[in-house]
Structure prediction request, 466 residues.
Amino acid sequence: MSCTAGKAKRLRDADANQTVADAVRPGKKETMVGSDFVAAEPIKWPVQCTIGRGLQDAIACETQIGFVNGARGILSYRGYDIFDLCAQSTFEEVSFLIINGYLPSADELKQYKETLASLRPLPRTLRALGALPIEKMTPMAALRVGIATLRQVVTDVDTQSPDPSHSIDTDADTVPDVTPDSNEDLEVDRAIPATTTLGRKDAYRLVAGMATIVAAIARLRKGLLPVEPRPDLSHAANLLYMITGTVPDEQQARIMDIALIVHGDHGMNASTFAAMVVASTLSDLYASVESGVGALSGPLHGGANEQVLYTLESIGSPERVKEWFKEARAKKKRIMGFGHRVYKTYDPRAKVLKPLAEIVTQNDPKLSTLFATAQALEHEVIEELGDTKNIFPNVDFYSGMIYKALGIEPAMFTPVFAVSRVAGWVARCLEYVKDNRIFRPRAMYTGETSRQYVPLERRGSTTKGA
Ligand code: ACO
Prediction:
C-alpha cells in the first residue's frame, strides 16, 4: 500500500512532551478491526503464494503467536495489540503470554516471576565466560558462547545437585529442574529423545538467563565483575541493574520494560526463522537461540540499532542533517533504522519508542541533540522516501538512544534486543516442533552444466571460465 502525502505528514508530526504513560496510551494506536487479520481460515497445504527473493511473501508455517499488518502498521502478540500491552503490561507478563498463549492469572504470574528469579543467577556460566577474553570478542559472539555454556552447564550431571546459595562463587548454576523432564510440556508425538532440551523449562531458562549473560558480557568487556541479579527487581530493572550496577529509578525501569515488550516477537524475521530452522532439525532450544543470536547480529537486522547511533553521532547536529542526507543519497547509502520488509508505513514499535526516546533524552544536552538530530533525519527520509518507497523509521531507529540514555553502551544494543526477542524465538520454536517438519527449501540452480573434469596436471594456471 502506498502512503499518501497527508499520511506521511501525520506520521512525521511527533507528539511532544508526554509522560511515559501518555506516550504509550492505548488510544494512540490505529484501531484494529477484524479485517486487519488475515488467514482466519485454516491453511490448506501446499499453500499457493508468490515468493520473491529473500523468501519475500513465502508462507513457511502457521502460527498463533504474533500478527503483523505491514500496510496498516499493526502488531499484536496472541491477539493483544502492542499499544495495549505497552501501556498496561510488563515484560514478565508479555513473555509468559508469548510462550504460553494466554495472559497469566495473578498466581501464575507470581509463580512465573519466581521461576525467572530462580533461573537468573548463573554462577557457573558466568565463571566460564569470565575465563574467556570477552573484551576481544564482539558482544554478540560472546553471547553465543554464553548460551552454549549455559546449555553445557544445565545438561551437565553435576547440576543435579545445585548449590542453593545462588552465589557467583558457587560451583553450580541454580537449576533445580534439568533436562530429563524438560520435554513434559512439548506434546510432540514424534520420536524426540527424552533428553532433548526442547521444552518449556528450557524456554524459561533462556528468557531468564539471557539477561544475566548479556549483563555479564557488558561488564566483563569493561573489566568489571558481573553483578548478581536481585530477586526483588523486575526483569527490566534487573537487566539495567546487572549492567550498570545501579538500581534504576521507576521511570527508567518502566521505559526499559516497554522497550523489552516491543522487541518480544515479530513474525518470521531473519533471526526467528534461523532459530526455527535449527529447531526443525530437532536440535535443541539452546542451539536454536544461538542461531537466532547469530542472525540478529547483522546490520540489516538487529545490528541496525547500534549503527543508527553511530550515524546520528557522526552527523552531530540537526543543522547538519540535510547535507549529510544529500551526500548519503548521492552515494546510495542505506539509512540505518529505516525501511522494513513487512512494514510499508510507520513501524508501530518506533511509534511507541519515539516519545520514550524524547522523555529519556530531554535532560541531557548531548542526548537531546541526538534526539533532535534523529527527528531531523526522520523528516528528511520520510520527505524523500516515505511516499515514493514507503520507507519510514523502524524499531531500531529510536531504541539505541533510549538504551544509551539508560546507561547501556552502543556495542550492547543488539544483545539487549536479544534479551527480549528470545521470548519470540523460544515460543515459535516450541510451537513449530509440536507439528514438526524439517525446513528444507530449494535453490534454483543457474550454474554450469555438463563440464568435463580436467585432471590437475592438464589444468594450466586456471580452469576458471573453461
Ligand atoms: N535507506 C535507503 N533506502 C532503502 C532503505 C534504507 N534504509 N531500505 C530500503 N531502501 C530502498 C532500497 O534501496 C530499495 O530501493 P530500489 O527499489 O531503488 O532498489 C527499496 O528500498 C527496497 O529495498 P529492499 O532492500 O528490497 O528491501 P528489503 O525488504 O529487502 O530490506 C531492510 C528490508 C533490510 C530492513 C532494509 O529496509 C534495510 O536495509 N534497512 C536498513 C537496515 C535496518 O534498519 N534494519 C533493521 C530492520 S528492523 C529489524 O530487523 C529489527
About this structure: Confidence is low (pLDDT under 50) at residues 1-17, 157-172, 174-195.
